[in-house]
Amino acid sequence: MIKQDISEKQANIIYLGIGSNLGDRIKNIKKAINMLFLNNIKILQTSSYYESFSWPNPKNPKFINIVLKINTKINPINLLKICKKIEKKLGRVKTRRNSPRVCDIDILDFDKKISKLSIDLPHPRMHTRNFVLIPLFEIDKNWSHPILKQHIKSLIFSLPYRDISSIKKI
């Protein structure tokens, strides 16, 4: 039997959400994907681009969002640090919560881990967001919420009708 070295970490399956509602939104997302790749993050799948109203203020510019399925040996805290560094490099400035931004990268699900310590896993509001659930369903039709134990279809159908009908694949 070969004993695995403790320092060898298995790669994790992670879902990231990326959104932009300022500037060239698609270009911002593509740059973010490239920067993730340059940080030794393997992109396994990318959803289509989806346009949706800003939340909570639909008068703000519309968002374009995608979901990525990635693979990495990086731990959740360091992945979050990389995501924040990428957001900053792309021009995100810390302002009021939910204000318009060049780039927003959220860790949605990190290998089904559940945490409330230095990072909330899974993302605490992902199950209520059309711009997360619909692109996630596109790339993983069998995903289920680690805490709620609900299949993604159930989560989508629990959204208000206006949330399902207002998002557009582009």
Can you give me a brief rundown of this structure?
The protein has 5 helices and 8 strands.
Give your account of this protein's structure.
The chain is α+β, with helices and mostly antiparallel strands and 170 residues long. The chain has a single domain (12-169), classed as 7,8-Dihydro-6-hydroxymethylpterin-pyrophosphokinase HPPK (Alpha-Beta Plaits). The chain is built from 5 helices and 8 strands, in the order E-H-E-E-E-H-E-E-E-H-H-H-E. The protein has helices at residues 25-38, 76-89, 130-139, 152-157, 161-166, and strands at 12-20, 42-46, 50-52, 63-72, 104-110, 115-116, 120-121, 168-169. The radius of gyration is 16 Å and the shape is globular. The chain starts with 11 loop residues before the first strand and ends with a strand. Residues 1-8 have low confidence and may be disordered.
Rg result = 16 Å
What is the H/E string?
EHEEEHEEEHHHE
Structural class: alpha+beta
Number of helices: 5
Q: What is the CATH C-level name?
A: Alpha Beta
| Assigned CATH architecture | 2-Layer Sandwich
Dominant shape = globular
Q: Indicate how many domains the architecture comprises.
A: 1
Number of strands: 8
Q: Could you state the CATH homologous superfamily?
A: 7,8-Dihydro-6-hydroxymethylpterin-pyrophosphokinase HPPK
| Proportion of residues in helical segments | 25-40%
| Mean pLDDT level | 92
Distance linking N and C termini = 51 Å
What is the fold-level CATH name, i.e. the topology?
A: Alpha-Beta Plaits
Main sheet summary: 6 strands, antiparallel
Show unreliable segments.
1-8
Strand content: 15-25%
